[in-house]
Amino acid sequence: MKVFKFGGASVKDAAGVQNLAEIVRTQGKNAVVVVSAMGKTTNALEDLVRAYINPRPGQIQARLQTIRSYHESIIHGLTGNFTSVYQTLETLEAYLKQPFTGLYDEVYDQIVSLGEIMSTQIVAAYLANTGIATRWTDARQLIATDVTFREGRVDWEETNRRINNTVTTAAVTVTQGFIGQSPDGRTTTLGREGSDYTAAIFAYCLNAESVTIWKDVPGVLNADPKWFDQTVLLEKITYQDAIELAYYGATVIHPKTIKPLQNKGIPLYVRSFVKPDAPGTVIGHYERHLLIPSFIFKINQVLISLHPNDFSFIAEDNLSRIFGRFAQAGIKINLMQNTAISFSVVVDNNQDRIPELLGQLRQDFRVSYNDGLELITIRYYDQSTIDRVLVNKKLLLEQKSRYTVQLVVKDLG
Ligand code: ASP
User: Fold this and answer.
1) Binding positions for substrate (predicted)?
2) Is 42 annotated as a binding residue?
3) Which end of the chain has fewer beta carbons closer than 10 Å to its terminal beta carbon, N or C?
4) How confident is the prediction for the chain on average, in pLDDT?
5) pLDDT tens digit string along 293-323?
6) Which of 396, 113, 395, 156 lies closest to 263 in space, CA to CA?
7) Can you state the angle between helices 83-97 and 114-129, rounded to 10 degrees?
8) Which of 153, 182, 215 is the last residue of a domain?
9) CA 279, CA 293: separation in Å to the nearest integer?
10) Are 295 and 245 in contact (CB under 8 A)?
11) CATH code for position 396
12) Is residue 137 part of a domain?
């Protein structure tokens, strides 16, 4: 059995859904098809959550209407029975009529998850209408998580049991990425861009023959074309390299996706839905590492440096206090470096969380803060590649390991 994952860009309009159907018809007989919310629906639903929690006249209705019209415009370009989509829109509307109670993250998951529900309802109805045996399956009944809203942790044993009791090869299974359910029956999500991870979970549990992520790029490139003119398609990548690239911020694959596949030796293909016959990239068990350098750019980075207020060194006790604070604030550290009396970290500039964290850190440390930075990671670097990316940049911090260099820079351009 194969597992296919289609992201929001692949189903952003009716033509995208038709293209998906053609790929499934020609290459995905009996596949499990994991689908994200259509286009930028997740962002639109996030706006709706904010409007619901901080209501201002007309805002909820306006946002709801945008989401409704967008899905209707896609439906109007397709044929099929789309009653269930209208029912989901009604469920959403009814939810928003209730007064806001509970926690932000929980409410977020109940609302935002409906993007995936609607997209799969449209895709399944259209596939069925084209004559493909299709079974719409609710991922909330299959992906068992704990109650960590917005970052649900998967209960693998329970999920495995449910998936194997439900998924058959009798039809194409159409299901949602990104969403699951807590033991007490509340919807959870797996973190932004989590649909790739869902595909890996299904593949792992079903011992799938492969996973294919269908993207709007030809495969995994050695750099993001947004930042680099001359990019190269990487035809084969080891699991190890793919994990490292994803972890450092290559957005083409969600970092959690690869480990489960590596454990079972299931190949992961990254292919273009625009050119579905092109081979793309395959990630698997290979002897050889990447032969060329890969570049990962992260913008909007903040460098935070901490100096103890007392005369202590940066040693175990200080470090554990610092890490505790970051973990509690839910801020992921992209790079860290310490000397005897200072500790520096680079993190994404998350203004919802950083100011409070800084307040806490200031209780024990003198804190310096530098924003508007870029973090450049090069895997399989040499000096000429470093020189190339440093043109017109001021280097603030550098960290090298055998295969990877990370550079924190300020753009002077
Ligand atoms: N729709 C979700 C998001 O945009 C999950 C995904 O697309 O992977 O983050």
Assistant:
1) 42, 116
2) yes
3) C
4) 94
5) 999 999 999 999 999 888 788 888 888 989 9
6) 156
7) 170
8) 215
9) 21
10) no
11) 3.30.2130.10
12) yes
